[in-house]
Write a structure and sequence with these properties.
The protein is built from four helices and eight strands; from the N terminus they run αββαβαβββββα. It is of the alpha+beta class. The strands form two sheets. It has a five-stranded antiparallel β-sheet with strand order 7-6-5-4-8.
Length: about 170
C-alpha cells in the first residue's frame, strides 16, 4: 500500500465500521485524472445495496474533504466487491473456503508464483489451496493478489444468499 492509501484507510475504516460496513480494498488508478476506488462490504455478510454505497460515499467524501490526503482533483468510486471478489483479509480465505480462487504471490513457493484451486481455509497465516498438483500452502504475507473465480458453485451460493435475504 502507498502512503496515500494507508492514510485513506486510517480515515475511512473506522467510519465505515460505525456504519456496519468493512473496507475491502482501496485502489488509486490513473495519473492525469485519478480515480479513488473504495470497495466495501457489509459486516453482516449480506449483499451491499446501492444505498450502502451512496451513504458510504457521502461519509467518505466529507472525511476526505476535511483531511485532503490526495492532492488535486480525483473521482471517488465506492462499490461492492462483486461475485468474483478480491480476497484481501485472512477472514476472506476462511469465509470463502470451498470456492475456487486465483492466487498470485510476490515470491515463488515450490517454484511458482501463480496458483489456481479450491480454497481450503487458512491456518496460522498460511492459506491452504487444493490444486491439480496437490495441496499448496501459501503464506498470506506473500500473497500479492487473490480473487474468487466465477463458477457455477459461486453463482448458486450468491443466488441462494440473495433469495434468503429477500424473504
Amino acid at each position: 500500500m502507498t502512503d496515500h492509501t494507508n492514510r485513506i484507510e486510517e480515515l475511512v475504516a473506522p467510519a465505515l465500521e460505525g456504519m456496519g460496513l468493512a473496507l475491502v480494498r482501496i485502489r488509486i488508478t490513473g495519473t492525469r485524472s485519478p480515480t479513488l476506488q473504495i470497495m466495501i462490504e457489509r459486516e453482516d455478510d449480506k449483499a451491499v445495496t446501492v444505498e450502502d454505497c451512496a451513504q458510504a460515499s457521502r461519509t467518505i467524501s466529507v472525511l476526505l474533504d476535511a483531511d485532503d490526503p490526495l492532492t488535486g482533483s480525483y473521482t471517488l468510486e465506492v462499490s461492492s466487491p462483486g461475485v468474483d471478489r478480491p480476497l484481501v483479509r485472512p477472514r476472506d480465505f476462511e469465509r470463502f473456503a470451498g470456492y475456487e480462487a486465483n492466487v498470485e504471490l510476490r515470491t515463488p513457493v515450490s517454484g511458482r508464483k501463480r496458483f489456481r484451486g479450491r480454497l481450503l481455509g487458512i491456518v496460522d497465516d498460511v492459506v491452504h489451496l487444493s490444486t491439480e498438483a496437490g495441496e499448496a500452502e501459501l503464506p498470506i504475507a506473500e500473497i500479492d493478489k487473490a480473487k474468487l473465480i466465477l463458477t457455477d458453485d459461486l453463482l448458486a451460493a450468491v443466488e441462494a444468499e440473495m433469495i434468503e435475504h429477500e424473504g
